[in-house]
Amino acid sequence: MKLTTQTDYALRTLMFLATRTERANVADVATLFGISTNHVAKVVNLLARAGYVQSTRGIGGGIELARAPEEISVGDVIATMESDTHLLSCVGSDDSCVIHSFCKLKGVLAEAERLQQEYLQGITLAEVIPTRRQLNRVEASIE
């Protein structure tokens, strides 16, 4: 499975927010990772609709995690952000190949996908976040 840039940005945004005790803003995330503010804003919108991020408008507003990092599964975030996680199209379909009725590769790939998803479901955001100190060093090098 190769993740989309959108999923990459979503995971980075959640990791960033998990290191914060106060609200952040989209520009903070974009600046740290050197990515477009517009892209981060789109990702934050999707994350907010999925219940991972809380967005508050106005003075004193910003973005923050809507749940504790221990309650957010990396696998769930990937499943939310990705439309297709199949290794090959045949795994998600019965009619994509002329040999589908007897192909053993499809079963092997389906099992690999299942194992990968099971593993990612068991990993929480809390397990992959950098320390605040690590991010501070990155931020200091940007300024």
Order of helices and strands: HHHEEHHHH
- Give the overall shape: elongated
In the CATH hierarchy, the third-tier topology is known as: Arc Repressor Mutant, subunit A
The main pleated sheet reads as: 2 strands, antiparallel
- The CATH C-level class name: Mainly Alpha
Distance between the ends: 35 Å
- How many domains make up the 3D coordinates? 1
Helix content: 40-55%
Average pLDDT reading: 90
* Strand arrangement across the biggest beta sheet: 1-2
Q: Gyration radius, to the nearest Å?
A: 18 Å
Show unreliable segments: none
Summarize the structure.
The protein has helices spanning 5-18, 26-33, 37-49, 74-81, 105-121, 125-128, 132-142, and strands spanning 53-56, 62-65. The chain is mainly alpha-helical.
SSE blueprint and pairings:
Elements: H1 5-18, H2 26-33, H3 37-49, E1 53-56, E2 62-65, H4 74-81, H5 105-121, H6 125-128, H7 132-142
Antiparallel strand pairs: 1-2
Outline the structure in words.
InterPro entries: TR_Rrf2-type_CS, Tscrpt_reg_Rrf2, WH-like_DNA-bd_sf, WH_DNA-bd_sf. It comes from Stieleria neptunia. GO terms for molecular function: DNA binding; DNA-binding transcription factor activity. Pfam families: Rrf2. Keywords: DNA-binding. It is built from seven helices and two strands. The longest helix is centred in the last third of the chain and has 17 residues, at 105-121. The protein has a single domain (5-142), classed as Winged helix-like DNA-binding domain superfamily/Winged helix DNA-binding domain (Arc Repressor Mutant, subunit A, Orthogonal Bundle), CATH 1.10.10.10. The relative contact order is 0.17. It is elongated. It has a two-stranded antiparallel sheet with strand order 1-2. Helix content is 52%, strand content 6%. The model has no long low-confidence stretch (mean pLDDT 90). With 143 residues, the chain is mainly α. Helix 1 (5-18) packs across helix 3 (37-49), helix 1 runs antiparallel to helix 4 and helix 2 packs across helix 3 (37-49).
